[in-house]
Input
Amino acid sequence: MAEGIRDKVAIIGMGCSKFGERFDCGPEQLMVEAFEECIKDAGINRSEIQAAWFGQCYDELGTGKGAPGLAISLRLPYIPVTRVENFCATGTEAFRGAVYAVASGACDIALAQGAEKLKDTGYGGLPAIDGVNSGALFGQTLPNISAPGAFAQLASAYRAKHNIPYDELKRAIAHVSVKSHANGVKNPKAHLRKPISIEKVMGAPLIADPLGLFDCCGVSDGSACAIVTTPEIAKSMGKENLVSVKALQLSVSNGEERGYKDWDGSYFATTRRASKAAYKEAGIKNPREEISMFEVHDCFSITEFVTYEDLYISPEGGAIKDVMDGFYDADGQIPCQIDGGLKCFGHPIGASGLRMIYEMYLQLQGRAGERQLSDPKLGMTHNLGGFPFANVCALSIVGRYE
Amino acid sequence: MVGITSYGGYIPRLRLNRGVVYGANAWMAPGLIGSAGGERSMANWDEDSLTMAVEAARDCINGFDKSKIDVAYMASVNFPFEDRLNSGIMATALNLNNSLDSADFTASMRAGASALAAGVNAVKSGDFNNVLVAAGDRRITKMAYTHELLAGDGAAAVLLGSDNVVAEFKCSTTVTEDFADHYRGEGEQFDYNWEERWIRDEGILKIVPSAIQKLYEKAGISGKDIDRFVMPCMFPRVPAQIATMMEIGAEKAADNMHAVCGDTGTAHPLVMLITELENASPGDKILVAAFGQGCTVMLFEVTDNISKMSGKRGIKGSLADRKEEHNYIKFLSHRGLLQQDQTMRAEANWRTALSALYRNRKMILGMVGGKCTKCGTAQFPKAEVCVNPDCKSVGTQEDCEFANQPGKIKSYTADILTFTPDPPAHYGMITFENEGRGMFDFTDYEVGKIEVGLPVQMVFRIRNIDRQRNFTQYFWKAKPIITKEEA
Output
């Protein structure tokens, strides 16, 4: 019987590039920037890395298909490198590959690196869905959908389900963005570092009703990476304050949301499934009491908002109260997006999952500077890729190795 | 008895006020004032001759056992495809039996009437039992041309057969003359028209009466036997003039519908005929004359069955579903007559995999989903493995039509980011009465009036035009059902 990943793998080094409109850098430079920080943190030589996983979603804007883009950029010594892509869960998937490789005993030290170069698109937002590249059938039947439009629908269904006036929900999700911006101000690696007000969010131009400009995360370039090994090897290297992996879970839509009568459009069926599995794997009984901090996939404010409930931290229908009470603020009971979130970092897709883990790692090691929370024990990260009606949810929980 | 057994109509919801066309063009074309009254129907950006014909045909065959339809004809002078059977696309959209004869009728304003006459002959031959004839036109003219005001967009369809005839076919005649009042050469976008006075005096006023006279002789009737005279004509007084000449009586001439919709091209003889049928009484004799490189004349007599047609949307119902449009630039933009910046997002490559389209033709063009024979779950699309989590049976699904399923909005948004010719793009989750569901684009919506729970009907529309390869791609969209008070 499988016993899960808990405490089998430790993170010994992490790195994260500055996120932003890095017009002067390609994915190659961004990856080196993150990797140099990571390998110094790990205190190893790159020849000690035995396998690598490379997360990149938009290969057409990045280093192309396949894994050589990472191997060439870092001059890895002919080791196994695998490229993974799983929508917005891509970065976490790279991490999962490396962690599983170490846990299986197939290798001692593995690298997970994610990178995305979005700002060669030529316009704002994620690249438009391309008929040819979206699959022959998918491309002929999908609505004329954008990312904000896909997620904005959550708001219409959530309002209908809980009978909430338009402005009340709009104000609550505005608070979500205001909170993240307040955190991002303190993070030198964030793309957006300006505080915003509720009024500014509420009054911004609409992108996809009810989401306005400040309900949408930034679009940026970036890279983040992690080097992992077993706790035993980490200790033998003299590492202290070890951060270990407590849970790694994935849940993928099977078409029921889009095709079967049960789903009401107001939540993520995958996140509910993945979070239950992750808590079980990590030995968490009551997430609202035990999780110290978390990073949610806030591609849009409404995504973060409904995810509070899907992670069973806010009760169903209770997210508005928690948000307005400041439960998720930096000084609240469980700070969410303490680094600024996707909202302030933007969302270079392949990098995002690893960027989230990077913040949890820093916080758990007491190295988060101005943002440092007092005595965090468990940090959770969450990615949600695709559409609410068909998506990939990835969760990781990391914590102190005791 | 052979004749019309059912009919259906479709006039797009948008009506362009002609005054705005005149207002925009008066500085260089002051003569437009003569045709500037009333309003013309205006296809939405996602409507063309084919989508309108499909909607008219759906209205026409609604309630009829469509497995019995063995011929599908479509007429238009603005087919989306010059070489790909448009009536074949229509038949697939209607999910007709593929044991079907089909043909496209084109290249003359008379093509709709020609298709109707051919359909009658098919039934009379005894080889075919139920012939669907649809005509639709979205006519593109140069801006500031008189025909921009005279033309309207629309479609009509009739079913021909020998059971439950509502209008019996009595007689027809056709004369063919190479009278080129206008023409459109190969590869051209616009018609070239000759002088109106010559068209009227040397063409219409000579050719139409001669064809009617031939019919009188063939049928052994006189003008006094005719109750209504249907003749599309860009000269508003000419039909009454011909009705007088042919002893029908000026008051019997039907209105050309200029005030409410405009001339719908090949569809117009059918649009006007259906309008007459909507007001007809049993025994009425209706004479239809369609001019175009000659003239086809057809005589119908209304039967007692006409009362069974009362549930149809028809032309009357279409005209009642109306939204005024005062934006002439929007009209020109929707018809591709202005070079518009569409942002980089519009540059996406929309090449259609024709092999995938064929493989999924029932789903994409016909909106046919599946129904699990084991658990009864209706689902869209039809899948190898049943979507019901408690079933998941493999290979158990039979075809299940979704096109006529009433639906409701479950979730939605109005999207400003994505490119659409008519922003903001509205789309969302639709749940159907049969408990199937899907994500669909919306069309013909009122901005600011969409809510969860709003009822919708599915309509056949253009999803995308691949400009690089000039390929129009069709799919189904959700049209919110808007009551008059809401509009």
